[in-house]
From TrEMBL:
Residues 15-97 form the Core-binding (CB) domain. This is Phage integrase family protein. InterPro entries: CB, DNA_brk_join_enz, Integrase-like_cat_sf, Integrase_catalytic, Integrase_recombinase_N. It comes from Mycolicibacterium hassiacum (strain DSM 44199 / CIP 105218 / JCM 12690 / 3849). It comes from the Bacteria. Gene3D superfamilies: 1.10.150.130, Intergrase catalytic core. Transmembrane segments: none annotated. GO terms for molecular function: DNA binding.
Length: 292
């Protein structure tokens, strides 16, 4: 049980919620979960409390259904998003309803009631298939991909000739698009690349020091560190575009070893790259189903 002091509380409802969230945070940290995941779940609980105007020990299945009906019908959230929200809130309810943590006794003493699980199979979405992508989502055709890469390069030239700021980030993002395609990288894998991650492939000497890339920030399994993997260089143009960037672009953004730093020397935010990606797709009138 998360220890609660014996001193009378000035705002018992608010303070009890904060104690619950602190205890739940500690439980998840002990399970080795990612801090960003924990913060997102706690933020979700706060949103649910604000929406329902009810504290956790007063939640009912009815308020659950009202909240998610609003997310689906009015805000248009995706099915996978709904299921993720429901799972996070279900875990919180399991924590505060577990007698081992003692929140039932605390709430009975303070409020004359106790928390209970309000997320069940009959009022939550089931995960019935692994792939839940939108049917419109599809890969690029070769022609579309070439047009996209050409347009990204043209934008760098156009911005540079205009004398406006922004040609360097445009250059960086154009290279990021190509590297993501070359190695089949997820965005988080891409943004964490460093110059030291590349090395020779003795079976493909023509690529020089860029024959292999070691991915250190792959998608992690629950409670585990990021997964590592190694990807071979297969396109003869990949080393050329990376070398060009490392020589004529990366040093002007940062003097460190991050391959794709932001203008402030930090890692590039996903929304930054996706915003440019979507703008280029719109410029070329490409399908909305295309994605990185």
């Amino acid at each position: 049980m998360f220890l609660v002091g014996a001193v009378p509380l000035l705002h018992p409802e608010v303070q009890t919620v904060e104690e619950m969230l602190d205890g739940w945070r500690n439980q998840q940290l002990c399970r080795n979960l990612d801090p960003d995941t924990i913060d997102a779940r706690i933020s979700l609980v706060r949103r649910f409390i604000e929406y329902t105007n009810e504290y956790p020990w007063s939640w009912t299945p009815a308020v659950v259904e009202e909240f998610f009906a609003d997310l689906r019908s009015i805000k248009g959230r995706r099915q996978s998003t709904i299921r993720g929200y429901q799972n996070g809130l279900r875990l919180f309810c399991s924590y505060i309803a577990d007698p081992d943590y003692g929140w039932d006794r605390v709430c009975e003493q303070r409020f004359g009631t106790h928390p209970a699980q309000v997320f069940f199979s009959w009022n939550t979405a089931a995960h019935v298939q692994d792939n839940e992508q939108d049917p419109e989502k599809r890969p690029f055709t070769k022609r579309e991909l070439q047009d996209f890469f050409d347009h990204a390069d043209d934008q760098v030239t156009a911005i540079a000739r205009s004398g406006k700021k922004g040609w360097l980030p445009a250059f960086r993002d154009a290279v990021m698009f190509k590297v993501a395609y070359s190695y089949g990288l997820r965005f988080n894998e891409l943004r964490h690349l460093q110059t030291v991650d590349f090395s020779r492939n003795p079976h493909a000497r023509e690529f020089g020091n860029l024959g292999v890339v070691k991915i250190r920030y792959g998608k992690a399994k629950k409670g585990s560190p990021p997964k590592r993997r190694t990807v071979l260089t297969v396109f003869d143009w990949t080393p050329e575009i990376i070398s060009d960037w490392v020589t004529h672009g990366q040093p002007y953004l940062d003097d460190g070893i991050d391959l794709f730093p932001s203008e402030r020397g930090a890692l590039v935010a996903e929304r930054t790259l996706l915003r440019r990606f979507r703008r280029y797709c719109n410029d070329l009138e490409l399908s909305a189903g295309l994605d990185l």
